[in-house]
Each structure stands twice: as C-alpha cells, then as structure tokens.
Amino acid sequence: MSAYDADAIVVGGGLAGVAAAIAVAKCGLKTIHLAPVGPPDRRTSALMMPTVDYLRDAGLVDDPTAVGHALTQIRIIDATGRLIRAPETLFDAAEAGLDAFGWNFANARLMERFHAVAEGLDNLETRNVGVTDLGADHTLTLGDGSVLRAPLIVGADGKKSLIRSAAGFHIRETEFRQAALVCDLDLGRPIGGTSVEFHYPQGPFTLVPAGGTRANLVWIDDRALLEQARATGEEALAARFLEKSQRLFGAIALASPAFVFPLSTLSVDAAGADGVVLVGEAAHAFPPIGAQGLNLGLRDVADLATALASADRGRPDWAIGVSTDYSRRRASDLARTGGMVDTLFRSLLADMIPAQALRAGGLWALKLAPGLRKQAFALGMGRR
Ligand SMILES: Cc1cc2nc3c(=O)[nH]c(=O)nc-3n(C[C@H](O)[C@H](O)[C@H](O)COP(=O)(O)OP(=O)(O)OC[C@H]3O[C@@H](n4cnc5c(N)ncnc54)[C@H](O)[C@@H]3O)c2cc1C
Questions:
Q1: What is the pLDDT, as a whole number, of residue 86?
Q2: Distance of alpha carbon 89 from alpha carbon 215, whole angstroms
Q3: Whose CA is nearest to atom 32 of ligand 1?
Q4: In angstroms, what is the span from residue 326 Cα to ligand 1's centroid?
Q5: Does domain 8-173+263-380 have CATH number 3.50.50.60?
Q6: What is the model's pTM?
Q7: Domain boundaries, the chain
C-alpha cells in the first residue's frame, strides 16, 4: 500500500470546498484540494452576520463593503390572495441591535477572494481535476488516472457527492416540482438595504439588494412554468417581473441572463465517519428560502476547523477521531436548520386552511411580539 500523499484531501471547488481547503491548511495539515474548473457560479448568497464575522475571523473577507451589500431590512408581502392572509411585515436589523442582518454577495466575487487566500498558503496544493472513485483505505482515483491517499477526506463535492455515496453515508432526499429562477435586475427605484419577499401561493418572489437600483431576483415557482417564462425572452420576462413585483419599484430590466435551479432537500444521518467528512451541499441541501445553504456550509467549515484544532494528531487514528467529533458537533445545527427550512418551505406552499392560518398567525405574532421576533432573528441568523 502506498504512503499517504497528504494529511487531508478536500474534494470539490465550490465555495464550501475552497473555504474548507483553506481552513484545513490553516490548521497546519498538508492539504491537496481537488477542484475541477466548472462554469462560473451565477448565484448570490445572503450571508448572515455570524457568517460574515466568520469570514472576517478566517481572513477570507476583511471588508464586506468591498464585496457585498448590507441587508438592513426584510419586508414580507403576502401576495397569496388566500382566505387567511398574513400581515405585511417589516423586520429591521436595528431592532436586533444590529447595523445589518447580513450581507448579500455575488458567489463569483466571494470565490475570487477565497482563491486569493488559498494561493498564499504553502501547505495547500490545488489541482484542477475531479475524482472518479473513492476506494478502500481512502484511495482516490482522479480523472487523469492518478491515485492519491490521505487519512482525512473532506467531501465538498455538492448535492450529488461521489464521496458521500462511495463512503456509504445514508441520505434522505426529496425532489420538489418547484425550481428557482435567478437573475440580476435593474429597478426603476432603489430598494436600499431592504430584501423584499412577495409570498405567492406557488412560492416566494424575492428581490435582494445588490447596490443602488440593482437587485438579485430569486423566484420560486413550478419548474415547468419557470422554464417556459425564461423561454419567452427578456422583454416578456421583464413584464412578468413588473407584474410580480406589484410595480412597487417602477420599470424593471434584466441585467443578466436568467438561470433555473431545480430544488430538493437532502440530509445525512451523520456528517462524518471513518475519516471522511462532508461539508456544504454534500451534507445538506434545501430550497433557497431564509438564505441558509451557504451559511450552513460555512458553519460546517468552522466546526471542521474546531474539530481539527482539538485533535491529537499524534494518534494513528486521528482522522477517524476528527470525523466522529465533527459529526457530533454538526448534528444539532444540521437537524435544526434543515427542519426550519423544510417547515418554512412547506408552509409557504400549503393550500390547507389550517397551515395558512398557522403561517398567518405566526407572522402576526412576529409582528406584534418583540420577544418572539428576537428569537426568530437568532434562529434565522444561525446563532448558536
Ligand atoms: C438560487 C439559489 C440561491 C441561493 N441563495 C443562498 C443565499 O442567499 N444564502 C445562502 O447561504 N445560500 C444560498 N444558496 C445555497 C448556496 O448557493 C449553496 O449552499 C452553496 O453555494 C453550495 O456550495 P458547495 O460548495 O457546497 O456546493 P457547489 O457549489 O455545488 O460545489 C460543489 C463542487 O464540487 C465539484 N465536484 C462535483 N463532483 C466532483 C468530483 N467527483 N470531484 C471533484 N469535484 C467535484 C463541482 O464541480 C463543484 O465545483 C442558494 C442556492 C440557490 C440554488
């Protein structure tokens, strides 16, 4: 059997993968990062304040104002036309004693920052090649036919993770008929720092501030309907957006092509075992409501760093210990956040009167009760 090529191999070049490779290398491990070059990531991510603090502490983003846009308010408009409707609700970060709930970043901009940090680490080697197999004793076969081994394998290879399936992690997965259409928009009027969510029966239509009159749209609806809308062309699509935004922000023009992402939920029973750990969407995926996915992925990375920092690397089985410790550290956050998003998503789409009443009642309660609002802020922001 060949000797180890590194202490750790991180598989996957998305934001969670690059952040994980940096975190592992910063813990002093000789690290190889396998990151095949893919199409540019067109998504944007609203990252909550605790995550932005982590980015600062980890040296990934020193100054969020240079890369992103502050989210200071969240406005929810019930556009369901249902029998029992929720009140229009405005949440202000100032109520939580904060300047902002978080920041909205273009994933591509974040990636530039992460790459710049990775390039400065001597013990981190990046190879732009994918993995085709994970065999016994942590032997990875790469797309170029070469093989690599390490005691610790970090699977950051996304929703369809090969590392996860090859290592035998058990998953639960639900595909939705809904999808998310995303694109950048230029509005007739600025939305400042307010994220505006129109809640339609088929799913939310959300405008996230991207500076001045620019907004990032995340429109969740039936996948077939979104594909059809996209195919009608820019002009017809802009007219559709104008109607869905209830003309609150004046004329709307597309500032980027529109992309449609299928939606599903995915969770694992455990996020680590036998020297293999899963981070980011390899461990959890859900619809982009409540802006949780990458926030959770970066909390994975933070916990991986903590597990590594507390490991006794003199022990022959240290990597197995790290994977067990990591799995234990992640369990409650993954269950809580996954459960919260699932409940929120299903309540948004519920046609049943009791569910509508619960949702409307919940928003009334949040509107009226400051204590409850504080708790909701803490949960939504992923405070631990
Ligand atoms: C429309 C939309 C809006 C969103 N908005 C938000 C938001 O506001 N806030 C938030 O926190 N989250 C948001 N998310 C979620 C967030 O985008 C994801 O959680 C995050 O980008 C996932 O990053 P990742 O690195 O885990 O996965 P990915 O970005 O999918 O990266 C996986 C990587 O693994 C690589 N890979 C795959 N297979 C292999 C292999 N065999 N070998 C090597 N590499 C491999 C791929 O090439 C890819 O680069 C949103 C998601 C969507 C769809």
A1: 65
A2: 20
A3: 158
A4: 20
A5: yes
A6: 0.91
A7: 8-173+263-380
